[in-house]
Design goal:
17% strand, eleven-stranded mixed sheet, alpha/beta
């Protein structure tokens, strides 16, 4: 079992001893998070090559994703740069070293743009990410990943049907999209490992399945063999699993990203052993919600909504997060932007009618100059709720 605080201390020590290596291997602290090196994305099967001849390739390589470099430049200019500037002005006073991001999909870049000081990001989503996704992929899979990332750079959000591969012959590897998002955020991965949540809510890693990246941030094209600890597979059916990515930002500071696959509905939280305890622990500081399909406003997700409302010290969300009745129970609520109606799928939502009525009594700050969440007639809406309450109880060992 690993305590992530010890990992940060070990990383600092290693960085001090090997400072020359860090200077060479990390980004140079440029304002724009672009790098000459590609993201740490799984290998791609080369036509006609044997397994021994296949080598790690970056999904950002123009030969694999035509026009991707230009797409990323446009994203940084239109969305990421304005978002970082806005967060530096409007969110600078928010506290917390940890951030919980439910319904995240592979979108790490938005979380790290709004919360640049967060050292430990926990992403929760239904889609699975595993070390097995480091294995070589066929051309159809890579093409799907390229198209999905391109859609994100144009809109700022992922679509569930794309992540699930419902409109394509090949489903994307969630891990490939996650690593690509981290690269866009300026994070150079240094290691990746398998994690799972135990019945007490602690997140355990498996040292036998930790894989180091090379100096370019690339991983080997296939994971090591599965570690058989003799556990009955039936006993693991309710276990929450995922991956932990260790990385360094543009200033050489350590960042820890946990991605866990979990059903966040009431039934799902009850079914997953330790899942509720893990969420309660990691919701103690900052929570972020974006493009959450308005699920938290339904009865089927009321347990998660209650955990966030009762435990989070800071909540940054769009209109798809907590209902306005929950938000007004925080000590302070700031509204950035305007709101007339949600994305067309939810125009008849009772929660959206309550939000529209409530905002008539709030001071509305200027609309943020970037898209955040689904497209809607009135543009971007960001709600920032903060509480003065002290996070309850000691944190569980991570």
């Amino acid at each position: 079992m690993t305590d992530h605080r010890g990992w940060f201390e070990r990383t600092r020590t290693m960085r001090s001893i090997a400072s020359v290596i860090v200077v060479i291997g990390c980004l140079t602290g440029r304002a724009e998070p672009a790098r000459a090196q590609g993201p740490a994305v799984p290998a791609v099967a080369q036509p006609g090559a044997t397994e021994a001849q296949q080598t790690p390739r970056s999904i950002a390589d123009p030969a694999l994703c035509d026009g991707l470099a230009a797409d990323n430049r446009n994203y940084r200019r239109r969305i990421l740069g304005p978002m970082q500037d806005w967060a530096g002005r409007e969110l600078a006073g928010l506290r917390g070293d940890t951030l919980l991001y439910p319904f995240s999909g592979p979108d790490a870049v938005t979380a790290l743009a709004l919360f640049p000081a967060v050292r430990h990001l926990t992403m929760l989503s239904l889609q699975k990410a595993s070390l097995e996704q480091l294995a070589p992929a066929d051309e159809e899979t890579v093409a799907a990943e390229c198209d999905i990332h391109r859609f994100f750079t144009q809109t700022g959000f992922f679509r569930t049907l794309d992540l699930d591969g419902k409109e394509r012959a090949a489903a994307p590897r969630l891990l490939a999209l996650l690593l690509l998002s981290l690269d866009t955020a300026g994070i150079r991965p240094t290691a990746i490992g398998a994690i799972e949540v135990d019945p007490n809510g602690s997140v355990r890693d498996d040292p036998a399945r930790r894989i180091l990246a090379d100096d370019s941030g690339l991983f080997p094209p296939a994971p090591p063999p599965m570690h058989d600890d003799g556990t009955d597979p039936k006993a693991l059916s309710g276990t929450v699993r995922g991956v932990r990515i260790e990385g360094l930002d543009g200033q050489g500071q350590p960042r820890l990203i946990d991605y866990l696959s979990i059903d966040l509905s009431n039934a799902g939280i009850r079914r997953h052993s330790g899942g509720r305890r893990m969420i309660e622990d990691r919701a103690r500081e900052a929570v972020m919600i974006k493009s959450g399909s308005h699920l938290l406003q339904s009865r089927n997700f009321s347990n998660l909504a209650r955990i966030i409302a009762h435990r989070a010290s800071t909540l940054v969300q769009d209109e798809t997060g907590l209902d306005i009745d929950w938000l007004t129970q925080f000590g302070r609520l700031e509204i950035h932007g305007r709101f007339t109606e949600p994305f067309e799928f939810w125009r008849d939502s009772e929660s959206m009618a309550r939000l529209r009525s409530a905002l008539e009594f709030f001071h509305l700050s200027e609309t943020p100059p970037f898209p955040y969440g689904y497209r809607k007639p009135s543009g971007t809406l960001i709600l920032v709720a903060t509480s003065d309450r002290t996070p309850p109880g000691p944190p569980a060992q991570r």
